[in-house]
């Protein structure tokens, strides 16, 4: 090599003339170029020893000392050089570089560069270094740009000048001009790798021209295949192009620079995009191991821990570590706020973190957006709206913020505006699935445009087919429009994507139970939820509902809760669930004891007070019921069931204002809540606004098709309206009654009656068995011997009672149908309905009313023939038949005693033979004797009748029997001597208060138990 040859020549020169300072200086220069700094230092020191005032030697010595990181000595050397030769511009430049780079004395450095320029105005290097200090340390980019342009004016082909000019232009956000500067460098020095890297960086970061940027980085790699920065930037661009495998391959060149923490960080980001979260976490931890004080590594580690492993505690620690390293890192503060909000629901603390991020970086659109989300959660809607608007002002093309703002407007009831914003978001970013989802939700929930909503969800699925939440939303739409098969398929698809998705599992179970009556499968689903999330109240409630309401497996449910309590005696949910069993079995004393135990564990558990309220209501202790509900609502003011129960309670007291307040609150949260809609309808009845009440009952029926009570209330409201608006003679009145009848006839389809083999048992015997069973149950509860035995026996007794009883609602419905058929003069159908009412389970008052009405219609409207009255009467049919037979036989025996006596003897022989042949068990002397005695006595009585001796008395007796037989059709008898008039009962009138009384009696002990859908509200952070 030339330098080695020159080094040898200067070595020979020194041997010839050891005191030649120039030879020593030249030798030092060559050694410096060869990076042999220690030997170079010796050479310069020898030159200075020979010639102490050699400014060049001192300057070169300073350069060597700088390379050896002996900055103090280097500075001394440069100062010595300038002292010896004040007009040595190079020495001044080198002194300035040391002052700036190693002593942070930027003012002095700037003075030295200006001194160099004063000495040598055309020294481009001096101008360049002056500009660097102005830009990097004083942020005076315009002045820096002027100095760089001066350097270029002096040396138009100075690549360094063009490079730093590009930096200054970038700082001034003049990216087009910056790109031009970097391209100029590539023209001047095509092999200058930095220029290609800079060009690619501008293309990627500011023009999003990733393909062109990729070409620039590949050119840099071609020049220097081992350049880690080029490979790293290539990886970033490939990542943005979603070519993740190629990006990972680029970062795989990490062996070029294995201790470069940032390369490990970038590699981790790509692995995260590839959903290789474990490897991504390892990459970030490797970066931390290399450079523990790298804030970016900690931030990315925290992000992976939070987003994919739900390890919020560790994620928070990572973000706090990043903040400790770089207190002014806005991203660290922003991510800390995200974890506090999403992971811990600490919205106030999260808000502080976002505000800190904004304080550091006022134009951080994401921080403003997240601040808005937190304010929304804190119900500070005006401030949230301002935050979203600020984020949009900063980044108007960020579709996510438009979606968030739209969601806020939707939550505050501004549905039209919300829909417009979702459309705006879709226009900005057609592939934004969140925008399509939100659009679908508002179309379905606020405008009931289900088909359009489905189209929006389909579009979201097309964009993001593995988004389980969209499938759940789609399933809910199918439910709303009655497509239950499709709803089930949608929920199953969501579960296929995300097997532990609680929302999808709960909705699947609810659909299986509510619409397909597949209780076994539904139970398995709810048990799966409990396995995933043992404290999910909805799953426990639904499991208990199935076990108790459909399988009547109270014993099994009790065992489940006892096991839960055994594992964790402080599990309040288990105690509450156990109390539910005893409430269902009407063992209120034991239920109250369990609630008291649960209260000692957790006084803030809302279900405790709900259960207390249910017990108080069933015991008719309405004041206590109200007090319990008010305690419940103080715990969770937004719980729909508590608001509903409180509204019902106030309605019972006649406080319509408070009842309306709580109902409106529920409907503002869920405008399809059937219970609330029903209550609103009842309130409107009390306010005598019957038209509005009908509307609310219609909505309640639509929301809860399987609850027939709303059909009865709707019919009642229509009847009240008909009574108010029309007279009974008007055709419109009759038409309205027909409409009511059609509605009441739907009740039977809503009430399922279990088929059993007990239908042939007489109602009186059923009633006796029910009474004795209830007595036995009360005795068992009173004795309180064993919890397990009490539940087991009560369960069996309740099963027997439920088989013997028909639902009360059937009796009430038949009663109302009978009354309304009577009102439209359809007496035959009215008789059938009232007969069914008397045969069904009902309270004493209802049965008595039905019997009175039935007798009235039968005797005064139907007016049957004698034979029909005696043989086919709807009431006491067998009593009348037996009476009729006795009267006929008595009349026959009085009129023809001898014939009748012979017939009696014939019957006696026939009966005794039949008993002997067909019923051997009855073939006992005492039984035969008893039967024979009765028949012979009858025969003897009639054979003793003598018309000759008793003509008058027998005639009178026969006339009485004939009169009794004919009395059913006798309305008025008159002769010249006597007048008999049988006054018909007064015309029957159906009083509205009677219907209302029956409906309230029906509901008095009812619990509104149904399967709950799990509602999930998501707030996404960027």
Descriptive key words:
55 helices; mainly alpha; Serine Threonine Protein Phosphatase 5, Tetratricopeptide repeat; two-stranded antiparallel ribbon; single chain; elongated; 76% helix; 1022 residues; disordered C terminus
- CATH class group of the domain at 1-120: Mainly Alpha
**What is the alpha-carbon Rg in Å?**
48 Å
Oligomer: single chain
Helical content stands at over 70%
CATH homologous superfamily heading of the domain at 1-120: Tetratricopeptide repeat domain
CATH topology of the domain at 1-120: Serine Threonine Protein Phosphatase 5, Tetratricopeptide repeat
Q: How can the largest sheet be summarized?
A: 2 strands, antiparallel
Distance between the termini: 58 Å
For the secondary structure, the number of strands is: 2
What best-fitting shape do the alpha-carbon axes yield? elongated
Strand order of the largest sheet: 1-2
CATH architecture field of the domain at 1-120:
Alpha Horseshoe
Helix/strand-derived class? mainly alpha
pLDDT below 50 for ≥5 consecutive residues: which ranges? 752-757, 972-988, 1005-1022
What does the model show?
With 1022 residues, the chain is mainly alpha-helical. Among the domains are: 1-120, Alpha Horseshoe (Serine Threonine Protein Phosphatase 5, Tetratricopeptide repeat), CATH 1.25.40.10; 761-804; 864-970, no CATH class. The chain is built from 55 helices and two strands. The protein has a two-stranded antiparallel sheet. α9 runs antiparallel to α10 (159-171). It starts with a helix and ends in a 19-residue tail after the last helix. Residues 752-757, 972-988 and 1005-1022 have low confidence and may be disordered. The chain crosses the membrane at residues 882-900, 921-945, 951-970. InterPro entries: HAT, Prenyl_trans_a, TPR-like_helical_dom_sf, TPR_2, TPR_rpt, Ycf3/AcsC/BcsC/TPR_MFPF. One of its GO terms (biological process) is RNA processing.
């Amino acid at each position: 090599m030339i330098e080695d040859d020159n080094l040898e020549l200067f070595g020979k020169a020194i041997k010839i003339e050891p005191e030649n300072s120039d030879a020593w200086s030249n030798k030092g220069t060559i050694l410096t170029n060869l990076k042999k700094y220690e030997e170079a230092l010796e050479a310069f020191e020898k030159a200075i020893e020979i010639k102490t005032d050699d400014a060049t030697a001192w300057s070169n010595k300073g350069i060597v000392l700088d390379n050896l990181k002996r900055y103090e000595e280097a500075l001394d050397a440069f100062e010595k050089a300038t002292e010896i030769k004040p007009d040595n511009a190079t020495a001044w430049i080198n002194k300035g570089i040391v002052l700036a780079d190693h002593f942070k004395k930027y003012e002095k450095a700037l003075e030295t560069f200006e001194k160099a320029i004063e000495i040598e105005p055309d020294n481009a290097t001096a101008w360049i270094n002056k500009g660097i200090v102005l830009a990097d340390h004083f942020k005076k980019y315009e002045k820096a740009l002027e100095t760089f342009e001066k350097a270029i004016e002096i040396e138009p082909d100075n690549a360094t000048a063009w490079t730093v000019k590009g930096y200054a232009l970038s700082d001034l956000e003049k990216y087009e001009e910056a790109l031009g500067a970097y391209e100029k460098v590539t023209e001047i020095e095509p092999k200058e790798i930095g220029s290609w890297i800079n060009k690619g960086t501008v293309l990627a970061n500011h023009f999003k021209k990733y393909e062109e940027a990729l070409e620039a980085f590949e050119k840099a790699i071609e020049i220097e295949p081992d350049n880690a920065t080029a490979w790293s930037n290539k990886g970033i661009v490939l990542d943005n192009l979603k070519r993740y495998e190629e990006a990972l391959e680029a970062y795989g060149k990490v062996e070029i620079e294995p201790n470069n923490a940032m390369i490990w960080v970038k590699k981790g980001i790509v692995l995260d995009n590839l959903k290789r979260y474990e490897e991504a976490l390892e990459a970030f931890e490797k970066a931390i191991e290399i450079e523990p004080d790298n804030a970016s590594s900690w931030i990315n580690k925290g992000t992976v821990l939070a987003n994919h492993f739900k390890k919020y505690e560790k994620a928070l620690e990572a973000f706090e570590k990043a903040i400790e390293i770089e207190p002014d890192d806005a991203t660290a503060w922003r991510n800390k706020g995200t974890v506090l909000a999403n992971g811990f629901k600490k919205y106030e603390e999260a808000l502080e973190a976002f505000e800190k991020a904004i304080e550091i970086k006022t134009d951080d659109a994401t921080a403003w957006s997240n601040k808005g989300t937190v304010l929304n959660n804190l119900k500070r809607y005006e401030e949230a709206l301002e935050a979203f608007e600020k984020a949009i002002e900063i980044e108007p093309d960020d579709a996510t913020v438009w979606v968030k703002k739209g969601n806020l407007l939707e939550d505050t009831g501004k549905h039209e505006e919300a829909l417009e914003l979702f459309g705006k978001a879709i226009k900005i970013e057609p592939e934004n699935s969140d925008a399509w989802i939100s659009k679908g939700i508002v179309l379905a929930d606020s405008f009931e445009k289900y088909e359009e909503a489905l189209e929006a969800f389909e579009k979201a699925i097309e964009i993001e087919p593995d988004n389980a939440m969209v499938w759940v939303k789609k399933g809910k739409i199918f439910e709303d429009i009655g497509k239950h098969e499709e709803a089930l398929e949608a929920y199953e698809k969501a579960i296929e994507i995300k097997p532990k998705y609680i929302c999808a599992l709960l909705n699947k179970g609810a659909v299986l139970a509510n619409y397909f009556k597949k209780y076994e499968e539904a139970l398995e689903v709810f048990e799966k939820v409990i396995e995933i999330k043992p404290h999910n109240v909805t799953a426990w409630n639904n499991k208990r509902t199935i076990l108790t309401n459909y399988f009547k497996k109270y014993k099994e449910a009790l065992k489940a809760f006892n096991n839960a309590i055994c594992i964790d005696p402080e599990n309040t949910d288990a105690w509450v669930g156990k109390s539910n069993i005893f409430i269902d079995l009407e063992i209120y004393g034991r239920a109250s004891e369990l609630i008291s135990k649960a209260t000692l564990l957790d006084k803030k558990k809302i279900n405790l007070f709900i259960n207390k309220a249910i017990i108080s209501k069933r015991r008719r202790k309405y004041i206590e019921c109200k007090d319990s509900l008010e305690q419940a609502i103080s715990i969770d003011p937004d719980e729909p069931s508590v608001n509903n129960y409180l509204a019902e309670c106030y309605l019972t007291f006649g406080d319509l204002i408070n009842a309306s307040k709580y109902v409106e609150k529920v409907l503002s949260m869920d405008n399809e809540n059937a219970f609330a809609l029903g209550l609103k309808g009842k309130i409107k009845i009390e306010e005598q606004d019957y038209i509005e009440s009908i509307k609310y009952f219609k909505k309640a029926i639509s929301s809860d098709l399987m609850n027939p009570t709303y059909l009865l209330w709707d019919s009642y409201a229509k009847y009240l309206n008909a009574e108010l608006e029309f007279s009974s003679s008007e055709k419109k009145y009759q038409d309205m009654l027909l409409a009511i009848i059609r509605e009441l006839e739907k009740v039977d389809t809503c009430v399922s009656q279990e088929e059993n083999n007990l239908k042939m048992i007489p109602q009186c015997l059923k009633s006796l068995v029910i009474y004795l069973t209830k007595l036995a149950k009360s005795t068992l509860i009173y004795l309180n011997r064993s919890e397990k035995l009490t539940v087991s026996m009560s369960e069996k007794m309740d099963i027997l009672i439920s088989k013997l009883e028909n639902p009360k609602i059937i009796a009430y419905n038949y009663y109302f149908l009978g009354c309304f058929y009577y009102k439209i003069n359809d007496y035959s159908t009215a008789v059938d309905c009232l007969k069914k009412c008397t045969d069904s389970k009902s309270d004493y008052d209802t049965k008595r009313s039905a019997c009175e009405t039935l007798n009235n219609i039968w005797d005064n409207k139907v007016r049957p023939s004698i034979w029909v009255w005696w043989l086919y009467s709807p009431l006491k049919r067998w009593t009348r038949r037996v009476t009729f037979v006795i009267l006929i036989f008595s009349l026959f025996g009085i009129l023809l005693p001898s014939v009748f006596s012979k017939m009696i003897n014939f019957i006696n022989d026939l009966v005794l033979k039949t008993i002997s042949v067909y019923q051997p068990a009855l073939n006992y002397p005492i039984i035969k004797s008893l039967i024979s005695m009765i028949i012979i006595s009858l025969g003897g009585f009639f054979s003793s009748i003598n018309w000759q001796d008793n003509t008058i008395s027998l005639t009178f007796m026969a006339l009485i029997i004939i009169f009794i037989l004919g009395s059913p059709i006798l309305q008025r008898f008159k002769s010249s001597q006597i007048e008999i008039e049988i006054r018909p009962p007064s015309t029957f009138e159906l009083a509205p208060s009677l219907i209302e009384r029956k409906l309230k009696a029906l509901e008095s002990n009812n619990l509104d138990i149904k399967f709950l859908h799990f509602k999930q509200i998501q707030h996404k952070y960027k």
